[in-house]
Design a protein that fits this description.
Strand order of the largest sheet: 2-1-3
Number of helices: 4
Radius of gyration: 39 Å
Structural class: alpha+beta
Strand content: 5-15%
Number of domains: 2
Amino acid sequence: MRYRVSGANQVTGGEISLTVDAEDEAAAEAVARAKGILVADVVPERIPSLPDADLASAVAAARQRAGKMVVPMYEGAKRAPTRYGEITRGAMVLRVLAILAYVAGGACVLFAFYLATQIGGRPSMAGIPSSAIDWVPVVMLMLTGLFYIAIGALLSMLGAVGLAIRDMANNSFRV
């Protein structure tokens, strides 16, 4: 059984109180004296105990008093429907635009490679070698394609960020 022992520290004289597990009050007092306490009072500590059936009903009553509680997913609760459809639709639009940007960028790069294979030994124009003039559009087309691919990556990332924000909102504001 548990006992609440009150008294004073033998060295400092300061008040002290502790809980001791012992067979009876005398044993609790002996344990406290062994720890250097001048014992003033020994009181049995009462712990309310409920049978399992009463404990389950007490827990159910406490939950009912608490009102609506968020039940963890492992107890079979279903998630409330989300109210963030705009975010989902916006993320889908950004993904479609990202795919279109990837396709456009890939087409530009492929066409630039095709043009690079077609540049040959043409005659010069106004004293400038034809190879220097012919490579300008190829390089510009290649850079444009790479720019479109970068834009596609950015749009894809923004769509993913939108979905992450939606998920954070779902998890933060559960009803």
